[in-house]
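FAQ: What does the model actually see?

It sees only this:
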Amino acid sequence: MKESLQSYIAKIKEFWRTRKKSQKLILVGAPLFLVILLSVIVIAATKTTLVPLYSNLTPSETGSIKENLDSRGIKSEISDGGKTIKVPEESVDTLKVELAAEGIPNSGNIDYSFFSQNAGIGMTENEFDVLKLDAMQSELANLIKGIDGINDAKVMINLPKQGVFVNDTAETASASIVLNTKPGYQFKDEQVQSLYHLVSKSVPNLPTDNIVITNQNFEYFDIKNSENFSTASQFTAQHEIKKEIERDVQRQVQTMLATLMGQDKVVVSVTADIDFTQENREENLIEPVDEENMEGIAISAQKLTETFTGNGEEAGGIPQGEDSADALGSSYLEGNNANGDYERIEETINNEVNKIRKEIVESPYKIRDLGIQVMVEPPEADNPNSLPQERINDITQILGTIVRTSIDKGTLEDELTNEEIQEKVVVSVQPFNGKVEFPSEEAAGIPWWVYMIGAILLAIILVLIILFVRARRSSSMEEEEEYEYVREQTFDIPDVNEEKETEASLRTKQLEKMAKEKPEDFAKLLRTWITED
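And it is asked to produce this:
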């Protein structure tokens, strides 16, 4: 056994001595690299990922949950100032079910389930009223918590006492609510009104006038000030529209002049005056069908014709005298013996015209005034004269055209003159002394050195594989050469004995001859046999 161990040690030393320096480095570095790589993989695979189990907890709830998890031997971590508790990711769902079955987290509030769990005949009326009020407050608070933008809610309800007699006037209830809202969340008017109506309908005989709602910052949510809220929101919307119009014009001018002068050679500022007045009007117009002749379409016509031909009546009758006793009515007719004709024609035509009724809603977003200020840096920053005056005039004319076409014509009494346009455009040529040079942004993504390290590691692995294969191949080739050499030598040794030799004696003679003529090959052959044994 000892000789076998020594032979193995000798073979190892011989193998190490015959290796090159590069092969020695690879043989030592490859196992070390594999050990480090496997260690990193094992650490990454066995690392526990903690995720939130509950959030927005009170300190008492966090303490009870932490104590329960520690008793179970489950790793946990408290974060967010004691409001959040984290557990291993694979245990989240199971823990939620198990803790819920145990009534954890327990907020200490009484809800309507209390009556079903603690119903009894020993409860007095006062105790029942207190528990009922507490349950109503808890249920209403839980209902409000489900609204978007609200983290928590505290509700205080004051219920009036019922009168003894039927004719007693029922008093109204009142409620005070404190909301813990999310930072930066803005409630709309409709949401505030819905919240008031929700509370009003959840408590008997509670009008909206008896409800007070504030948040943790003592900001009052008043349903009566919805008009003020609407005005504020309308101002914010109009301001955003004004800024959007200014940004749109500024981007167009900036893009155009940057193409002409250079991206870092132009700075544009735009100010606009927007008319937000929305006009609703109704127009009833009557127009002729035939505008050229100013005539309509005849829908009905009537023509009346009267004619008379013949002699007049002879004179006769009693004329009226100057005497007052004479009758006022006289039957005297003046004679007219001449022949005569009479004709009367009357024609009536009813024409239909176009009756147009228009209900016009004017757009409220009209540009009443527009000003554009442009600063241009000359090609040579220290030489303002390097920018010719013709180029400045071209820029001024371009800006004037933009102003002329952007201003709404309906807001002007007269068309803008060139002098008025020039007053709305300013072009300043000067160097940009405050310009900041930003470093070039690199493309987002994986850094280049990560790819380099990966390529190096891949190359090292390939080299190790190639060297390992070559070493195995060279070792097997040496063994085959030694074996072939021995086989070839068997045919070169002459048979010196006349007597018949066995295979064992023949192999012994061959080995003796090989030991004398080629001791190194004989030693390798012995090492090979020892290795095989």
